[in-house]
Design a protein that fits this description.
The chain is mostly beta strands and 99 residues long. It has one helix and five strands. It has one domain: Copper binding periplasmic protein CusF (OB fold (Dihydrolipoamide Acetyltransferase, E2P), Beta Barrel), CATH 2.40.50. It binds copper (II) ion.
């Protein structure tokens, strides 16, 4: 019975978001900066859909991996960013002005 449950769980995992469903995921997005909070290492971005994360467009607050990433971030600027999801927490690992 245990074996069947495990197989089912694995199968559902593969059907869902791929083999990385239970591991770390990384996605790329594009959006407009709405707020920068360097002291808290947070940035608010109105972003478009992030397919790798199965996320529609929305405005949300991201934690950044390194506050230095926010040095050049300006409200109103359009940026490309990389987000990593690890154990349910979403963290930005890169934020760059859109070229
Ligand atoms: Cu979002």
């Amino acid at each position: 019975m245990k074996k069947i449950m495990l197989a089912a769980a694995l199968y559902l995992g593969l059907l869902g978001t791929g083999p990385d469903a239970f591991a770390q995921m990384t996605g790329k997005g594009e959006g407009e900066i709405r707020k920068v909070d360097k002291d808290a290492s947070k940035i608010t971005i109105k972003h478009g859909p992030i397919e790798a994360m199965d996320m529609p467009g929305m405005t949300m607050v991201f934690q950044v991996k390194d506050p230095g990433l926010l040095d050049r971030a300006k409200v109103g600027e359009t940026v490309n960013f990389t987000v990593t999801k690890d154990s349910g927490a979403m963290v930005l690992t890169s934020v760059e002005p859109k070229k």
